[in-house]
Amino acid sequence: MGRHHVRIYHELAEAELVGIVDLDEARGVELAAKFKTKAYTSITPLLGKVKAVSVAVPTVAHLAVARPFLEAGVAVLIEKPLAPDTATAGELLEIGRRHGALLQVGHTERFNPVVRAMRSMQVSPQFIETHRISPFTFRSADIGVVMDMMIHDIDIVLSLVKAKPARVEAVGVSVLGRHEDIANARVIFEGGCVANLTASRLALKTERKIRVFSQEAYLSLDYQKKSGIAIKKDANLDLLKFAREHKAEDLSQLAGTDFGSMVKVEPLVVDDVEPLRAELQSFLHSVRTGERPAVTAEEGAAAVDLAERITMAVKEHNWQIK
After folding, report:
1. 68 near 47, Cβ under 8 Å?
2. Is residue 229 domain-shared with residue 197, that is, in the same domain?
3. 131-172: pLDDT as tens digits
4. In a domain, 291, yes or no
5. Torsion of CA 58, 61, 65, 68, to 10 degrees
6. What beta strand segments (E) does 38-140 contain?
7. 3-state DSSP: the chain helix, strand, coil percent, rounded to 5?
């Protein structure tokens, strides 16, 4: 992810790419030459020279890398997840608050065009279903699939539901290492909304989808294809009225009718903005103006907290295999 951050900062007119820090000196030098900047193997030379920084390192190193910048009052964007656990997330929040440093979390999926289109409809979810599966990339072997992949959907669900999780049930399987590679979670929120989340990094294909059911509409979105549909209640009142006015035995006389042709389906209007570019532009805007980040540290910490609860539920699941 760091490579992509470097590319976009280099391209943005509102930013000056001051330097790259990478423990792999050869890789840092290669990127620095390509994007006309300087390479370092330590963050020390950059302290006092930068106003904003992206931290795209293994999750376990987020605190160590971000702390010196936050303590210097530098605005920091930390790639998701904010931290490997709730305690560390809380420590990052406290450091940022104590030093008045802006801290944003890189939940890039928030900037996915289909998510922005979905949020513009302002639905109140009652049931949400997410699927996020892909082949193993070997890039995030230090964490399980919940923190690696499901965390995206956890953040989106929390931003939609706007309620606290009341109960969590989960199951998962570890195949390649000590962390879970496949997981499914059922989260019941205060207020009654239910979310069913599935993630796997052992699939032979890539699929990222979400379905949202509410009183106002049904939404089905494909993150990867950047497409989606909406079936709105107000657009289908005639069909609902017809169903209510006819008894069950009367409706059975319509067997063979194409129900799909009776339903009014609307394609979601989706733009074609690169999510990471939109995220970094939003981050820089907050740095310049002092406005609230698009994904606050508190929201990032809430996602980590729920992910941690799901991971614990996975570990505590009682397998009775004979």
Report:
1. yes
2. yes
3. 999 998 766 667 899 999 999 999 999 999 989 999 999 999
4. yes
5. 160
6. 38-40, 52-55, 75-79, 103-106, 125-133
7. 40, 25, 35
Domain-embedded: residue 300: no
Could you check whether the bond before residue 81 is cis, i.e. omega within 30 degrees of 0? Answer: yes
Question: Residue 289 falls within a domain, yes or no?
Answer: yes
Does residue 210 share a domain with residue 159? Answer: yes
63 and 35, same structural domain?
yes
State the Cα torsion 160-161-162-164 to the nearest 10°.
-140
pTM recorded for the entire structure: 0.87
Residue partners of 99: CB distance under 8 A and separation at least 6: 70, 71, 72, 73
Alpha carbon distances (Å) from 296 to 86, 93, 110, 187, 253: 15, 10, 12, 22, 54
Helix/strand/coil for 237: helix
Q: Which domain holds residue 98?
A: 2-107+276-295
Whether residue 128 contacts residue 213, with contact meaning beta carbons closer than 8 Å, is answered with yes
Q: Tokens 């930013």 map to which residue?
A: 15
